[in-house]
Design goal:
With 177 residues, the protein is α+β, with helices and mostly antiparallel strands. It has a domain of 76 residues. It is built from 6 helices and 6 strands; from the N terminus they run H-E-H-E-E-H-H-E-E-E-H-H. The strands form 3 sheets. Strands 1-4 form a two-stranded parallel ribbon. Strands 2-3 form a two-stranded antiparallel ribbon. The protein has a two-stranded antiparallel ribbon with strand order 5-6. Helix 1 crosses helix 4. The radius of gyration is 20 Å and the shape is flat. The structure holds zinc ion. Zinc ion binds next to loops. It comes from Nonomuraea helvata. Keywords: DNA-binding, Endonuclease, Hydrolase, Nuclease. Pfam families: Cas12f1-like_TNB. GO terms for molecular function: endonuclease activity.
């Protein structure tokens, strides 16, 4: 059986909101990133157009849309209404270049060795770039004042949140943005 994207998003959203009271996602502004590139006329040659990155951008569009971030976010918010989980969007700037070790935190683009490998130029912490990015995203969400123990965290409380505290948290997130 072939999974449709919508099924995948619904399943992922269900599992995440059932297990965690606080889900932090990157605000990728996928609408802005996938907006069409306007053709740029070449002033020296009427009727001709300058290269404007349209081809590169259409590849990026496809990658973003394939990942289905927006669909996942919509599914998360829909499920969160029932579980009381807080969905929090953070600015992803530097999350791929920042050392996730709390004692370090060095920001250096050279620490990102490749698509897959992160190796801190300051303390030497090495890990999979996706895991490093996820740790930084989580830390940013927590730093914004929305520290909610995950339901899967054995040390945390498994209490569901009342709708009122969810609303306050959403306001706090907006105020912090
Ligand atoms: Zn480091």
């Amino acid at each position: 059986m072939r999974w449709r994207r919508a099924d995948f998003n619904a399943q992922a959203a269900h599992r995440l909101t059932r297990r965690y009271g606080h889900v932090v996602i990157e605000d990728l502004d996928t609408k802005g990133m996938s907006a069409a590139v306007k053709p740029k006329p070449d002033p020296g040659r009427p009727g001709r157009f300058l290269r404007n990155g349209a081809a590169a951008k259409s590849g990026l569009n496809k990658a973003i849309l394939d990942k289905g971030w927006y669909g996942l976010e919509v599914a998360l918010r829909a499920k969160a209404r029932y579980t009381g989980s807080v969905i929090h969007k953070i600015d992803p700037a530097y999350t791929s270049q920042t050392c996730p070790e709390p004692a370090c935190g060095k920001v250096d683009e050279k620490s990102r060795k490749s698509q897959a490998i992160f190796s801190c130029t300051s303390c030497g912490h090495t890990g999979h770039a996706d895991i490093v990015g996820a740790r930084n995203i989580k830390a940013k969400g927590q730093a914004a004042g929305l520290v909610v123990s995950g339901r899967g965290d054995p040390s945390g409380s498994a209490k569901r949140q009342a709708p009122r505290s969810t609303a306050r948290a959403a306001q706090a997130a907006r105020a912090a943005a």
